């Protein structure tokens, strides 16, 4: 088979690519940054998942795909928007591209979903991504997992650093939350099992090792396996404010990774059933076996992330009134924005589809947008390329075109208004003080405007 892997530069993606290529499959590794490693049978393609066009081009020739992407780390010099909205827009791009490519199946590695409505932002995002990937007609197989125990895994590496660096480890109440980890080796075999047995219908499976352990028990087991004497002390800190600072200080992990993971630790991350593992005849390694195997593996090279470009990415989620489309919202935005600033701004539209936002006096063009007829044929997505104006640097690269888009997500229940690859002419310190907060203020006002037009 020809299998595309989104997130092939991550530690699971690299291991899966090697496993599939070793089994004789052709692998297409999608990456936005530098290639981590090259191996026979793996073709690397540059793909910025925020670009629908690049997603479509990168999936050409693929029969199936594996989606291993989570966008918690920033992808631009200035990122405006929550990580869950970034996750949502790239998942929607991938789902649209998968449908256009006619993929037989997409396999998604998500998170275990606990009972109850009040999910953390991290888990809610995983669930939204799962629903979005399966919303465009391509069958989706979702594997829901907890912590992956393997060399290079971010959560596992944080636990190793805690045990290795601290003789005294403080344990808040949520350290006793039960969790279902899984060995990297078992995860790879289950992913391959699903790829080699594609289903015409979407399906979801919980997976995990044979044991249910609390985070404290996992730390205690790791300390014992490493031969370290460690003292574990319960502390009555129910929030994560001090814990996340302490964890960042000890492990060196970025806050964009630590904060959502800590928020999720208050939820029991336990597999409801493990029927996929029963079907595959793979009960899984015990936690101790998984840790021993991870410690014996050579240290995984760090994923080589693309350096953030000197540009802006903004994604804002707005409730969309029932029965309305992204095309309707884009038209309302063009009518509403000049009214917001009254006599200060004017919007001019020519016959060729260009829209210019002008200062009323002196008569100067601030931003020029060109409507993309080719990329806006569907009413659920409208694209305007940023082609000029005093506030925009010109960028003619076809692979990184500055643009603003309006798109529907989550079955039309919300609107995503996104700016991609925009390069301001203002110095960054001045842009951060003026234009950036002004954009957020405008978006909040537009959200209130749409709600009043129900």
Walk me through the topology.
Elements: E1 2-6, H1 11-22, E2 26-31, E3 42-46, H2 52-58, E4 64-67, E5 76-80, H3 83-101, E6 105-111, H4 121-133, E7 140-145, E8 148-149, H5 154-165, E9 168-171, E10 178-179, E11 182-183, H6 184-195, E12 203-206, E13 213-214, H7 215-226, E14 231-234, H8 241-251, H9 255-264, H10 275-280, H11 287-296, E15 309-319, H12 326-341, E16 345-349, E17 354-359, E18 365-371, E19 381-388, E20 403-409, E21 414-422, H13 428-433, H14 435-451
Parallel strand pairs: 1-2, 1-4, 2-3, 4-6, 5-15, 6-7, 7-12, 8-11, 9-14
Antiparallel strand pairs: 10-13, 15-21, 16-17, 17-18, 18-19, 19-20, 20-21
Helix pairs in contact: 1-6, 2-3, 3-4, 5-7, 7-11, 8-9, 12-14
Quick summary:
The chain is of the alpha/beta class and 454 residues long. It has helices at 11-22, 52-58, 83-101, 121-133, 154-165, 184-195, 215-226, 241-251, 255-264, 275-280, 287-296, 326-341, 428-433, 435-451; strands at 2-6, 26-31, 42-46, 64-67, 76-80, 105-111, 140-145, 148-149, 168-171, 178-179, 182-183, 203-206, 213-214, 231-234, 309-319, 345-349, 354-359, 365-371, 381-388, 403-409, 414-422.
Instruction: Report Rg.
Output: 24 Å
What would the principal axes of the Cα set say about the shape? globular
What is the CATH top level name of the largest domain?
A: Alpha Beta
> Helical region count?
14
Instruction: Give the termini distance in whole angstroms.
Output: 48 Å
Structural category is alpha/beta
- The residue ranges in which pLDDT falls below 50 over 5 or more consecutive positions are none
CATH architecture of the largest domain: 3-Layer(aba) Sandwich
The major β-sheet equals:
8 strands, mixed
Number of domains: 2
**Overall mean pLDDT:** 89
CATH fold description of the largest domain: Rossmann fold
CATH homologous superfamily caption of the largest domain: NAD(P)-binding Rossmann-like Domain
Can you give the helix content as a percent range? 25-40%
**Strand residues, percent:** 15-25%
Number of beta strands: 21
The main sheet orders its strands as 5-15-21-20-19-18-17-16
């Amino acid at each position: 088979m020809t299998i595309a892997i989104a997130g092939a530069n991550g530690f699971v993606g690299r291991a899966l690519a090697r496993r599939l290529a070793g089994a004789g499959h052709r692998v297409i590794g999608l990456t936005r940054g530098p290639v981590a490693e090259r191996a026979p049978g793996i073709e690397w393609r540059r793909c910025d998942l925020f670009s629908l066009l690049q997603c479509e081009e990168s999936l050409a020739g693929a029969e199936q795909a594996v989606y291993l992407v989570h966008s918690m780390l920033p992808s631009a010099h200035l990122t405006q928007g929550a990580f869950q909205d970034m996750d949502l827009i790239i998942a929607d791009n991938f789902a649209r591209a998968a449908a256009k490519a006619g993929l037989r199946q997409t396999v998604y590695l998500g998170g275990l979903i606990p009972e109850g409505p009040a999910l953390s932002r991290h888990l809610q995002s995983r669930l939204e991504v799962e629903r979005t990937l399966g919303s465009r007609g391509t069958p989706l197989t979702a594997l829901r997992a907890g912590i992956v125990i393997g060399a290079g895994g971010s959560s596992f590496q944080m636990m190793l650093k805690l045990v290795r660096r601290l003789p005294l480890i403080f344990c808040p109440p949520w350290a006793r939350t039960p969790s279902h980890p899984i060995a990297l080796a078992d995860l790879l075999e289950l992913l391959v099992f699903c790829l080699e047995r594609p289903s015409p219908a979407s399906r979801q499976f919980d997976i995990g090792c044979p044991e249910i352990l609390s985070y404290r028990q996992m730390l205690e087991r790791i300390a014992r396996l490493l031969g370290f004497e460690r003292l574990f002390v319960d502390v009555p800190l129910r929030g994560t404010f001090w814990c996340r600072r302490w964890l960042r200080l000890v492990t060196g992990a970025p806050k964009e990774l630590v904060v959502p993971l800590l928020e999720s630790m208050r939820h029991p991350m336990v597999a409801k059933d493990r029927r996929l593992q029963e079907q595959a005849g793979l009960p899984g390694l015990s936690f101790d076996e998984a840790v021993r195997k991870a410690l014996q593996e050579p240290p995984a090279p760090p994923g080589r992330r693309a350096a953030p470009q000197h540009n802006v990415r903004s994604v804002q989620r707005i409730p969309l009134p029932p029965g309305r489309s992204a095309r309707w919202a884009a038209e309302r935005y063009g009518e509403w924005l000049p009214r917001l600033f009254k006599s200060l701004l004017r919007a001019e539209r020519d016959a060729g589809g260009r829209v210019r936002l002008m200062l009323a006096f002196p008569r100067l063009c601030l931003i020029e947008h060109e409507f993309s007829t080719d990329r806006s044929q569907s009413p659920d997505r409208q694209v305007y390329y940023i082609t000029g104006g005093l506030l925009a640097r010109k960028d003619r690269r076809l692979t990184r075109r500055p643009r603003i888009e309006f798109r529907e997500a989550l079955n039309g229940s919300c609107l995503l208004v996104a700016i991609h690859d925009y390069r301001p002419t203002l110095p960054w310190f001045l842009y951060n003080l003026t234009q950036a907060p002004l954009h957020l203020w405008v978006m909040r006002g537009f959200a209130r405007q749409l709600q009043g037009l129900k």
